[in-house]
Amino acid sequence: MPPRPRGAPEPAGQRELLSAGDVARTIARMAHQVIEKTSLGASGARPVVLLGIPTRGAPLAHRLAARVAEFSGVEVPVGTLDVTLYRDDLRRRPTRPLGQTALPPGGVEDALVVLVDDVLFSGRTIRAALDALRDVGRPRAVQLAVLVDRGHRELPIRADYVGKNVPTARTEEVHVLFTETDGRDAVRLHRAGDPE
Amino acid sequence: MRHLLGTDGLDPATALAILDTADGLKRTLLGREVRKLPTLRGRTVITMFFEDSTRTRVSFEIAGKWMSADVVNVSSSGSSVKKGESLRDTALTLAAAGADCVIVRHPASGAAHRLASWLGHTGTSVVNAGDGTHEHPTQALLDMATLRDRLGGVEGRRIGIVGDVLHSRVARSNVHLLTSFGAQVVLVAPPTLLPTRIADWPVGAAGSLTVAHDLDPELPTLDAVMMLRVQAERMHGGFFPSAREYAITYGLSEARAAMLPEHAVVLHPGPMLRGMEISAAVADSPRAAITEQVANGVHVRMAVLYHLLAGEEEAV
User: Angle at Cα A66 formed by Cα A63 and Cα A67, nearest 5°?
Assistant: First the structure.
């Protein structure tokens, strides 16, 4: 989709929550928070691993790691963790294709794992991720970073790093777009059923 | 996908999705201490084998267990089949007992299709694990997975299927699947071990199917050669003069294997008759992918169960 010229009216029922510039600034801010909260680079600090949850958690994790390296000089291992096989809603949807799991060479044993996803909604994906994580190793601790927290949690799960809190109605959809997966950066709010 | 009855009629997109899932599962489980996924927790899989089998039955059982399904094995000996219960009644009993999926091997061609029609109203899925001389779809899928690993794919590749094609469900399933992925398949066998009307076999538009009786001239042209077991249990009559003569004319000896291109892969669905269709030295050589086939078999069968049982239930 070509970028909409500035000032042109939004399509009905759609709203841009974050522009490409906002997305970059938000990720930069999250990177600073990760550095501070994990005491990254300090002596005696636990090793940190970023694990993106496919699809869009994966590019987000890589960008976050790049910013963290830029601000702190510490190269943080990045990987992806597919949670499809651990979901509790498989039988409610047509068969899902699997995403990719690629752990960094050092694994997650005894590391501080930061799970990274684009949108935090019901919390069920994160529950599945915690189960999947348990099967690949035993991290010292697990934290969660999300670009957008849209509320409506169904499980006692909260994020440690939130790019933007967005109050939404259940029927609305939050679409995060990344250049790597969608050709551009943006976060958009859609009414259910609206085409992208 | 509701059932997996054959590769004939399996649409290439679905076959590709199964292969990709198998690949994903393989990578997911690689190097793990605990090879167990919670995906099919609470689902019940029943294997029903009316013919002897080691790898297929074990492979399905492991596949089910690694996905956390409850797996129950039924064989004809030791079940009510011995008392004269029909296939239909046995299947309906297993479905009523709570089977979400029945995996069936049967000596009669078409048994899995009959089963699927009898179980049509129950919501139970049927997987064909070999029916007579008809189809063995999961074998073809695991062969394809192995060829993708070794050759990167089969499009435009020349694959020889050698030996007892007449009695081989593996050959039939492979011809459908390989040609639908664009492979050029050549069947090599004595005329007595080739079925009639091969020209009528459905062949994928991008692939081709030819027949040869001489193995040696084919070998240098092949990217992969699949040796078939001589199925003595299905042979009533003289199909070739002697085992020794068969081994000499169609067996893959070391000398013959040396005629294959450097990159060519040797496959065998098993069980192997060493010294008959394949020599021990070739079977144990690095170009043989026979144990990889078995390992891929588990992942492919996990993928099949995933596609049958993990998604939303299709309307019956």
Answer: 90
Helix ranges, chain A (H): 20-37, 57-72, 124-136, 179-182
Residue B32 or residue B159, greater confidence = B159
Give this complex's ipTM: 0.84
Angstrom CA distances, A8 to A4, A11, A166, A194, stand at: 7, 9, 23, 19
For residue B103, the cross-strand partners are B47, B127
Q: What is the CATH number of domain B12-136+294-309?
A: 3.40.50.1370
**Fold observed for domain B137-293:** Rossmann fold (3.40.50)
What single-letter amino acid sits at B127? V
Q: Which of B27, B32, B306 sits opposite A135 (nearest CB)?
A: B32
Cβ separation of A136 and B32 shorter than 8 Å? Answer: yes
Q: Which residue of B has its CA nearest to A134?
A: B34
Q: For the purposes of burial, counting CB atoms within 10 Å of the CB of B156, is it exposed (0-12), middle (13-18) or buried (19 or more)?
A: exposed
pLDDT tens digits along B71-130: 999 987 777 777 888 899 999 999 999 999 999 999 999 999 999 999 988 999 999 999
Token pair belonging to B203: 């062949």
Joined tokens for residue B286: 């690095």
- Domain borders along chain B are 12-136+294-309, 137-293
Query: ∠B161-B302-B231 over CA atoms, to 5°?
Result: 30
Give the span between the Cα atoms of B37 and A32, in whole angstroms. 36
Chain A environment of B24 (Cβ under 8 Å): 82, 97-101
What number does CATH give the domain A27-39+46-87+98-169? 3.40.50.2020
In degrees, to the nearest 5, what angle opens at C-alpha A127 toward C-alphas A96 and B43?
55
Q: How far is CA B128 from the centre of its chain?
A: 9
Q: pLDDT tens digits, residue range A58-90?
A: 999 999 999 999 999 999 999 999 999 999 999
Evaluate the omega torsion of the peptide bond into residue B261 and state whether it is cis, within 30 degrees of 0.
Answer: no
Q: Do B37 and A96 touch (CB under 8 A)?
A: no
Which positions in chain B touch A101 (Cβ < 8 Å)? 24, 27-28
Q: Decide: B162 and B250 in contact? Cβ < 8 Å.
A: yes
b or e along A45-82 (b: 16 or more beta carbons within 10 Å of the residue's beta carbon)?
Answer: eebbbbbbbbbbbbbbbbbbbebbeeebebebbbbbbb
Q: Decide if B12-136+294-309 and B137-293 have a common fold.
A: yes
